[in-house]
Structure formats: C-alpha cells, structure tokens
Design a protein that fits this description.
The chain has a three-stranded antiparallel β-sheet, with helices on one face. With 104 residues, it is α+β, with helices and mostly antiparallel strands. The chain is built from three helices and five strands; from the N terminus they run βαααββββ.
Length: 104
C-alpha cells in the first residue's frame, strides 16, 4: 500500500486558460467540469490537480495526469479504471486537500 497527499490553494486556479484545463483534466473530467457553475469550476480544477499530485506521490507514475477522477451516481469520488486507487478529497475556504491510497 502506498499513500500520497497534496494541499493546494484554490485561488491559484482562477482564470486558467483552456490549454491548462485540457492538460490537467481528461475528457470525462472535462464533461463534469463543464456542467458546473463558474465558481465551482475553480474548486473542481484545483481539487483535481491536488488529486493528481497526490497520485504521483503515491505511485511515482510519470503518466499521473492521464488518470481521471470522477463522481459516481452517489457523488462518491473514484479513479476511472483503477479500483486499486482509493480517494479522499476535502476543501475549505481557499484550500483543497487530496489523499490517495494505492492498494497493492
């Protein structure tokens, strides 16, 4: 079992251009992102950046930006096509924290 954690300031992700967004988010994540209000988009982008940074810390996988984190029908967060990756995410005020556990 490996773990990773990342903390980021949400405000850093305001006014990011489409190139940055497409570099961080996969196609399925972009669909979720586009369905949100502008205010929630910033938090979504910051949170997903933190998730991917935490994933890299847990796995050292150089392709960490290719992983996608989505919400199921009960709004539970999961890593698409990777059931061995467990996810926890929280945000408060201007901070988002992501915690990843990669099961063996």
């Amino acid at each position: 079992m490996d773990i990773g954690v990342d903390l980021t300031k949400i405000s850093r992700f305001a006014n990011k251009d489409e190139h940055f967004i497409r570099r961080i988010l996969g196609e399925s994540e972009i669909k979720e992102y586009l369905s949100l209000s502008d205010e929630k988009k910033i938090t979504y982008l910051a949170s997903h950046f933190a998730l991917k940074e935490a994933l890299f810390k847990a796995s050292q996988d150089q392709h960490y930006l290719k992983y996608q984190f989505l919400h199921d029908e009960k709004c539970k967060l999961y890593c698409l096509n990777h059931p061995e990756i467990k996810v926890s995410l929280s945000h408060d005020n201007d901070l988002a924290i992501a915690f990843i556990v990669k099961m063996d």
